[in-house]
Design a protein that fits this description.
heterodimer, A: mainly alpha, MetI-like fold, two-stranded antiparallel ribbon, 2 strands, globular, B: alpha+beta, Rossmann fold, OB fold (Dihydrolipoamide Acetyltransferase, E2P), 2 domains, six-stranded mixed sheet, five-stranded antiparallel sheet, 8 helices, MetI-like_sf (chain A), cell membrane (chain A), transport (chain A), membrane (chain A)
């Protein structure tokens, strides 16, 4: 392979500098600040802070409310990840079967991806409106007194549905291109070896999609944990009260509404560690991932 | 084992393109039939229709006594070897070979026994636990063969199985496939664009051109009596020399200067295409035919002399012991090894 090099050391440094500055200012500095302030108890009016060591953390671990939010976040993440992956896979498999319409299909499904999370939340609000939301009416038709924003389970359901709906297009695109990269002859060989379409899917297609699926799993977990903030915020209408919230949302509520910057920082640090663990997990597995070539 | 019958089998695509014109062929039990032709001639389409990977537009296809037009590929009791092998990349060699059997409800012991048997035949014993990505091209080719033979099919289908291998391996695998097919006695259809493969492997050859069957015959029939100028040009390397000629007073006059005292074909045309195989022509002669040699191609066992005869391009093949040089060379055109073709239709006269 041909190697190109810089003649001076200053040009690469100058080219990298803007990016490094952005990372430093918007990522490392706030992160360092969060770590630092997680060891302090801030005065609510901003008149100073007291060093409290790990008290913010120990408080959190003993906090019933925090445990409840953590538990909800885990369930929420599992549900959103599972359903957005499963539904997207189903759609992709069906779209792949009709290649002719796939392009239109793909474009229509991609539109959803272009919607910003808070807007998705607002659309959700309309769907789940107490008086004339179509989904509310459907749930009521089946005998469920659905109350968005007032009933824990109703809000949780709405959050999962909107988050799943929002994430399906991304997964769909990845799954579809994954499916289309499986060599045609391999599928044809399977067609000769196995008469059952379901059998062929689980024995041949799915294992060959596994690298894509694994990548999407990580992406979706991250999405459910962190990127659904806008959806949560819109659906609970900034009134966490009896509503379910995720860990990320709780950081925001406790820090900026409750003015408990120390506790909120401790929560952020816990989330940062979580991301770190996820990332290590991802890299470890991706390194070991089988490349089918 | 089974006889395969194609009865006016035809393929038309939705856009109106006729990929295979009505084709009637009977393949006797245990024969290896080669479908050969240039790319786009419909040979792969025909094979894929037999496999059930393409719908048959018209006509009927039987494998054994049953018409299988509407049977799933998995129900046709066939095995196919693909050009790029189409191995399952996530399965080991053993799993690749046993997958079809497993889906037919074979017991584990039976699968193991058959896979071991196939691995022994193909010298794959040491590789059963490897994945396809850890194998060389030739080994992958063997696994694809193994996957086909463990199923004990009534019919083998080969879709250019050797074209991804290098020349040396290709020659070796060609012999191995042929030997294996003869030993197992399984009816086989083999698609290739390589006329050498077709000549060396086939019991019978089907030459296709533009979706149409040009000729069906044994390799020697195809070579000795090509049914058309297309077959004459396609089979044999270098191809048969074809020259424009006029029929004059009961003799054949090649365009240009050379005059032949050949008995003309009994057809009422005043022009005719005359064909000579390059190896039928001899160096030396009375000077009535002079080849203007432009290039000498050294092939070791023999030499190819390319040039012009009476202004038309002409090649001959001579033994390595004969002297060959650029420039005019008298040649002898054999009167008994001449082929005549219709000047417009290209059919044999």
């Amino acid at each position: 392979m041909k190697r190109a090099g810089f003649t001076t050391v200053w040009l690469p440094v100058a080219l990298l500098l803007p990016q490094l500055l952005i990372i430093a200012i918007f990522f490392y500095w706030p992160a360092a600040w969060a770590v630092q302030s997680s060891f302090y108890l801030q005065d609510p009016f901003g008149f100073g802070s007291t060093f409290v060591g790990f008290e913010n953390y120990t408080d959190l671990l003993q906090n019933v409310e925090y445990a409840k939010v953590a538990r909800f976040t885990v369930i929420y993440t599992v549900l959103v990840t599972f359903f957005s992956l499963a539904l997207a896979l189903l759609l992709a498999v069906k779209a792949d079967a009709v290649i002719r319409g796939a392009k239109t299909y793909r474009t229509l499904l991609m539109w959803v991806y272009a919607i910003a999370p808070p807007v998705a939340g607002f659309l959700g609000l309309m769907f789940f409106d107490q008086r004339n939301g179509p989904l509310t009416e459907m749930f009521q038709f089946f005998g469920w007194d659905f109350r968005l924003g007032a009933d824990f389970n109703s809000t949780a359901t709405a959050m999962v549905i909107v988050a799943v709906w929002k994430q399906i297009p991304v997964n769909f695109i990845f799954f579809l291109s994954g499916l289309q990269s499986i060599p045609k002859s391999v599928r044809e060989a399977a067609l000769i070896d196995n008469r059952s379409a379901t059998g062929r899917f689980w024995d041949v297609t799915f294992p060959l999609l596994a690298p894509t699926a694994f990548f999407l799993l990580i992406i979706n977990i991250t999405y459910s944990l962190f990127d659904t903030f806008g959806i949560v915020d819109t659906l609970v209408r900034s009134e966490p009260g009896n509503n379910p919230v995720t860990l990320v949302y709780k950081v925001f509520v406790d820090g900026f509404r409750g003015n408990d910057l120390g506790g909120s920082s401790a929560q952020s640090v816990i989330l940062m560690i979580l991301v770190l663990v996820l990332t290590i997990f991802q890299f470890r597995l991706i390194e070991r991932r089988i490349h089918y070539t | 084992m089974a006889q395969v019958t194609l009865d006016r089998v035809r393929k038309t695509y939705p856009n109106g393109h006729e990929a295979v014109q009505p084709c009637t062929v009977e393949i006797p039990d245990g024969e290896l039939v080669v479908l050969v032709g240039p790319s786009g001639c419909g040979k792969s389409t025909l094979l894929r229709m037999i496999a059930g990977l393409e719908d048959i537009t018209e006509g009927s296809l039987s494998i054994g006594p049953d018409v299988v037009n509407h049977k799933d590929p998995a129900d046709r009791n066939i095995a196919m070897v693909f050009q790029n092998y189409a191995l399952y990349p996530h399965m080991t060699v053993a799993k690749n070979m046993g997958y079809g059997l497993k889906n037919r409800g074979a017991s584990k012991a039976e699968i193991d026994q058959k896979v071991a048997e196939a691995a022994r035949i193909l010298n794959l014993g040491d590789y059963l636990d490897r994945r396809p990505s850890q194998l060389s091209g030739g080994q992958r080719q063997r696994v694809a063969m193994g996957r086909a033979i463990v199923r004990d099919p009534e019919l083998f289908l080969f879709d250019e199985p050797l074209s991804n291998l290098d020349a040396k391996l290709r020659n070796q695998m060609r012999i191995e496939i042929r030997a294996l097919q003869q030993r197992l006695g399984v009816t086989s259809v083999y698609v290739t664009h390589d006329q050498v493969e077709a000549m060396t492997m086939a019991d019978r050859i089907i030459v296709l051109n533009g979706g149409r069957v040009e000729q069906i015959g044994t390799p020697s029939e195809i070579y000795e009596r090509p049914a058309s100028t297309f077959v004459a040009g396609f089979m044999g390397a270098p191809p048969m020399n074809l020259m424009q000629a006029r029929v004059l007073n009961g003799a054949v006059q090649l365009d240009g200067t050379t005059k032949l005292t050949l008995a003309p074909p009994a057809v009422a045309t005043d022009t005719v295409l005359v064909g000579f195989r390059p190896e039928d022509v001899r160096l030396g002669g009375d000077g009535s035919a002079v080849l203007e040699v432009a290039i000498v191609e050294e092939l070791g066992a023999h030499r190819l002399l390319h040039g012009t005869l009476g202004g038309q391009s002409f090649s001959i093949s001579v033994g390595k012991d004969e002297t060959a040089q650029v420039g005019p060379q008298p040649i002898t055109l054999p009167q008994d090894r001449v082929h005549f073709f219709h000047p417009e239709r290209g059919t044999r006269l």
